[in-house]
Structure formats: C-alpha cells, structure tokens
C-alpha cells in the first residue's frame, strides 16, 4: 500500500489548478500559489529521479500528457464576436446592428432564446417553505439599519422644528451650489490640462509623420481604407481600421500622450488602467472620453494646424445619442461637464471653453455641415435626421468630431 | 389600480414597511430559483443562494439606487451568492474571478466556432421541446462557472458589458472575452449534443484554425 495520500491537500489543489491555468509556466502562477506550485513541479521532477531515470525528455512527455488532457477551448469567429459586441451595445436589438453583422446577431438572438428556455422551465418552482424560511432568516438577523427610529428623544415644539429646518435649508442652499461649482471647475480644469498635454502629443506626432494627425496605421494602403467614406467611424473596439477612436488611441499607443491624458473624470465608464499592452483602441463605445476630428478623404496632411480647425473636443453628445438611436438635440453640450459646455482643441494648440456647441461661424462642432443645413440654429429642434457613423465633414474647415 | 413597481416597493422597504418583502420575493421567486439552479447546477446550492440573495437585499436595500431597475440588480446579487454557495459546497469555480478567459497558454488547442454553422432552434424541429430543454441544460452545465455566470447575465438578463463588469467587479475586457468564450463553448456543446441525437446533423467540431 502506498505510504502517500492519493489526494492533494486543499492548498496544493488550488496551486495545481493555478498551474494548469497558467499553462504550466511558474512565473504566471499568482504569487499566493507560486511556492506550492514550484514544489509540485519539483515533485514531478523528483519522481523521475527516484525512478533512476533523470530524463528531461521523459518529464516533458509526462507534462505533455497532462496538457493534452486539458479540453480544447472554443472561440468565436471574428465576425460572430463583433456581432455579439454590437448586439449588446445596441441594447440586444438585432435590428439595430449594422446590416453586415445582422445575420450573426440574429443567431445570437436565437441562442439567447435557447439559454432563456433553459432557465424558464416550469419544473423548478420555489416552495412556500423556502419563501417562509427566507423571510424568517432575514427577520431573525439584525434589523435593517435604515429602519431606524426617526423619532427624537427630546421633545421639540413645532416652531423649534421649523427653525431647525429653515437653518438646514439655508445651509444646504448655500453649501450645495458651492460644492457643485467646485466639482464642475475641478473637472473642467482637469480636462483643460488633458487637452493641453494632448496638444503637445499631436504636435510631436505630426512632426514625426509628415504633418499628419494620428491615424491607426500610417501605411499608405490602410490609411486610404481609413478614409473610405463607407466605413463606420464609431465601431469602437471592433475594427481599428474603421474606428475613429482608434486613430486617437494611436497617440497613446505610440507614446505621444498617456492614456490618462485622454481620459475625462466626467466619464464614469472611462478606463485608463488595466488596458492590454497590445490594445489599439478603447474596448467599448462608452469608454471614449474625447471626440476626435473625423477625417475627410483627400485632405492634405497639414490642413489642420491652425486656429479654427477643431482637432479634439470633450465627448460628443450627438454621437452618444445617435449611436443609441435616440433623437439628438443640436443645443446639447458634452456630458463630460454635465451639459454645461465643452473644451475644444484648435489646430494651433490652443484650448477654448465654449458653452454652446455652435461655433461663432454657425458651425456646429459635433455635426457635419450637411446636417447643419437641415436645422435652423435659432430654433431648438429634436428628432432630427440621425447620424449613422458614416458622415464626413464637408470641407477641411467644417468642424466635425466623433465618436 | 396598477401594482406598485419593484423599485417603489424597495423604497417602501427602506422606509420600514416590512410587509413588502414577501411581495418582492413572491414576484421573483420562481425566476430566481430557476436562474440559480441553472447557474449552480444544484437545487440545494440554488436554495442556499436564494436565501442569501434576499438576506443581502435586506442588508443593502438602502444602497439601492431606485433609478436603476430592481430585477437586474437582485439577479446580479444572486449570481454572486451562487458563487459563494458553490464554494461552500466544495464546488469551486474553475477560474478565479479576475482571471481572464481566452488564450490557451501553452496548453489546449483553440477551436474556432462558426455560429452560422450552428443549426438554430427551429420551431418545426422534430426534437421535442423537452428534449431540447435537456440538451440546452447539458450544454449550459458543461460551461465553467465564470462562463455560465456571464452568459446568463448577458443572454438571459440582457445586462450591458459595463453593467456586468460593474456588478461582478471585473474589468470590462474580461467580461467581453469571457462572454465570447461562453457563447462559443455553449454553441459547440449544444451542436455536439444535437448531432448525437440526430445523426443527419453534422457536429461542427471542425477544429479549423482561423487565420
């Protein structure tokens, strides 16, 4: 009978799992399991020693046997994965997915119906006993901390209470606007600094790339496909040759600016850390904090480097709404500043704060000219023609940013 | 008169109206238990998680933002409690919560699944509904816990990637890669099971690498 246990202890079991997950590379095993994982590998090694055949090939064969026992992993084809992302981003509505991916999105819809079917089975029903015991367990515990006793231990007259309420009200009415204003100013300054840092990055990039603004790839072939007017520039995280945010991401990817400097504190979905080293774009539409000049086919490389040409702005509210198929409001400001206004970065490197999306020359910073012509700037109008992620500026001076 | 919404009931509960607890539980009890049973693969673990979910609700109700929808919130608590319940019963999730899924390291080969090759659930299918439900259940059970969890939250609860990441406290990129793997594995297992039942259907397990 073997003197050794045939079971691993719990710690060794965890370390073994971690070792398999790490592909048997000790360095990849989380620190808390690494020591034990090293001992496990050592045990395998000494097993060969005791057999009197310290043969690395045999050890390798043994490990390969173990690895072969790991089941194969399934992955989706790229277009199925893209369709899943688009379907999710469009609120799980396959009709809202671009036509090129709609068939795949409909398959996801069908599979989701199957998954739901597996949950919606009439066989499983919660019994009354389960509900009763759940409620009993809850009320046996400490009472809900919010079901506190709100009554005062001291007796107050109504006039005293009214005085206290009035004092509190005055206090709140004085303090709240100050706090709100401080927060707003802090975010505005933070974004302004980000824009200033980015402007240096844009300038340096242009110096190194024949005056050009950042694009996902500067190669002639792909650069021309980037300019293809039929491609959707709001495909964030799905296809860097289409996504305009991938062009902006290039600034961080190539080290001309940090990702933090392209991240607004006003965007709660923004993500500056935990980004894969080989990332070429933000992973999700809502992570993008700033909107970047949409390229117009045939524009000269250096056509942007002057005041009046808008290179970057706080996040466009228009694209956010249009992407979600909501009516857009031509007077809405960027959500980065709670709708109070937005920073714009001019081609000469200056940063300007504007509290309306309309520039002096009646040019809407978030809309291309052909849509501007459909609305009257003096009249607030909603439910206008939707943007589809295909639009381009009419000329090199027409301000238009996205996504 | 219209029934008060879940969110209204939660607000009343927070203010101290204990009677609404039973109403809330009654509204969601069957869905919740089914969801948990599918997630844990065990009725016992599901019932434990069920109790823990509502206990957690009781403790955290005052933190609930009534502008959010109650159902996705409570089901996300349930997913977290299911994980704890499985851990207690010695059925550890196969992957740590923060471990990304994807990539085969130096080990298993990758098999690319083309969803368009998966014959979908045709209503005119000869398969009886019951049989199909069994196959779906088996395909679900074949997934590791983290994959099943994210698949149910996305496909069944229809939560956005950002919501799932927020609620499970994992990076958004992990949600994405985990969901891609979950869908691929589910589709592959389902198709394989279907092929076993009906030999005229080809198992899609081609194992072709994508370039």
Structural class of chain A: mainly alpha
CATH first level of the largest domain in chain B: Mainly Alpha
Average residue pLDDT of chain A: 77
- Strand arrangement, largest sheet of chain A? 5-4-3-2-6
Count the strands of chain A? 6
What percent of residues of chain B adopt helix (DSSP H or I)? 55-70%
Distance between the termini of chain A: 69 Å
CATH architecture of the largest domain in chain B: Orthogonal Bundle
**CATH superfamily of the largest domain in chain B, please?**
RNA polymerase sigma factor, region 2, helix turn helix motif
Helical content class of chain A: 40-55%
Shape of chain A: globular
- Individual helix count of chain A: 11
**Low-confidence parts of chain B:** 91-108, 204-211
Strand content of chain A: 5-15%
Q: SSE layout and pairings?
A:
The complex is a heterodimer of chains A (403) and B (211).
Chain A: H1 10-21, H2 31-50, H3 56-68, E1 73-76, H4 78-89, H5 99-119, H6 128-140, H7 158-208, H8 220-226, H9 244-253, E2 290-293, E3 310-314, H10 317-323, E4 342-346, E5 351-354, H11 369-372, E6 401-402
Antiparallel strand pairs in A: 2-3, 2-6, 3-4, 4-5
Chain B: H1 6-14, H2 20-40, H3 43-60, H4 70-88, E1 110-113, H5 129-141, H6 145-156, H7 161-168, H8 172-197
Helix pairs in contact in B: 1-2, 2-3, 2-4, 3-4, 5-8, 6-8, 7-8
């Amino acid at each position: 009978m073997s003197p050794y246990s045939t079971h691993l202890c719990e710690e060794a079991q965890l370390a073994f799992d971690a070792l398999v997950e790490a592909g048997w590379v000790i360095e990849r095993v989380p620190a808390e399991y690494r020591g034990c994982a090293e001992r496990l590998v050592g045990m395998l090694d000494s097993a060969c020693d005791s057999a009197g055949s310290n043969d690395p090939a045999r050890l390798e064969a043994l490990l390969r046997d173990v690895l072969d026992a790991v089941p194969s992993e399934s992955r989706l084809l790229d277009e199925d994965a893209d369709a899943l992302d688009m379907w999710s981003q469009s609120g799980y509505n396959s009709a809202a997915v671009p036509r090129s991916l709609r068939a795949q999105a409909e398959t996801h819809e069908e599979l989701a119906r199957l998954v739901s079917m597996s949950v919606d089975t009439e066989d499983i029903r919660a019994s009354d006993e389960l509900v009763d015991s759940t409620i009993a367990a809850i009320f046996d515990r400490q009472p809900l901390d919010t079901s506190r006793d709100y009554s005062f231990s001291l007796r107050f007259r109504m006039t005293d209470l009214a005085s206290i309420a009035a004092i509190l009200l005055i206090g709140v009415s004085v303090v709240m606007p100050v706090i709100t204003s401080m927060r707003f100013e802090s975010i505005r300054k933070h974004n302004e600094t980000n824009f200033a840092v980015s402007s240096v990055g844009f300038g340096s990039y242009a110096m190194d790339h024949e005056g050009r603004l950042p694009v996902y790839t500067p190669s002639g072939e792909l650069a021309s496909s980037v300019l293809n007017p039929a491609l959707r520039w709001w495909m964030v995280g799905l296809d860097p040759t289409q996504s305009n945010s991938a062009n902006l991401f290039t600034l961080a990817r190539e080290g001309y600016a940090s990702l933090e400097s392209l991240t607004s504190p006003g965007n709660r979905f923004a993500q500056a850390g935990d980004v894969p080293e080989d990332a070429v774009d933000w992973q999700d539409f809502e992570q993008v904090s700033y909107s970047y000049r949409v390229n117009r086919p045939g524009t000269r490389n250096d056509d942007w480097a002057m005041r009046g040409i808008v290179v970057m702005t706080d996040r466009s509210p228009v694209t956010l709404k249009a992407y979600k198929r909501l009516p857009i409001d031509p007077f809405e400001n960027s959500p980065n500043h709670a709708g109070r206004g937005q920073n714009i970065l001019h081609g000469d490197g200056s940063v300007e704060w504007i509290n309306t999306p309309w520039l002096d020359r009646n040019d809407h910073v978030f809309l291309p000219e052909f849509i501007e012509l459909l609305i009257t700037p003096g009249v607030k109008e909603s439910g206008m023609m939707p943007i589809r992620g295909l639009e381009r500026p009419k000329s090199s001076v027409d301000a238009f940013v996205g996504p | 008169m219209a029934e008060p919404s879940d969110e209204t009931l939660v607000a009343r509960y927070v203010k101290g109206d204990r009677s609404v607890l039973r109403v809330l539980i009654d509204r969601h009890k069957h869905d919740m238990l089914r969801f948990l049973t599918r997630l844990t693969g065990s009725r016992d673990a599901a019932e434990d998680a069920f109790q823990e979910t509502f206990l957690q609700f009781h403790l955290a109700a005052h933190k609930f933002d009534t502008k959010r929808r109650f159902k996705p919130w409570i089901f996300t608590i349930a997913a977290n409690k299911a994980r704890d319940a499985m851990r207690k019963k010695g059925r550890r999730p196969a992957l740590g919560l923060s471990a990304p899924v994807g990539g085969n390291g130096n080990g298993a080969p990758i098999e690319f699944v083309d969803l368009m090759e998966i014959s979908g659930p045709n209503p005119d299918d000869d398969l009886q509904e019951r049989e199909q439900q069994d196959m779906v259940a088996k395909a679900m059970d074949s997934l590791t816990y983290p994959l099943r969890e994210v698949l149910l939250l996305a496909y069944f609860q229809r939560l956005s990637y950002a919501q799932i990441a927020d609620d499970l406290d994992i990076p958004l990129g992990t949600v994405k890669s985990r969901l891609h793997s979950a869908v691929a594995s589910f589709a592959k297992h389902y198709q394989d099971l279907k092929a076993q039942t009906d030999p005229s259907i080809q198992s899609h397990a081609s194992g072709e690498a994508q370039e």
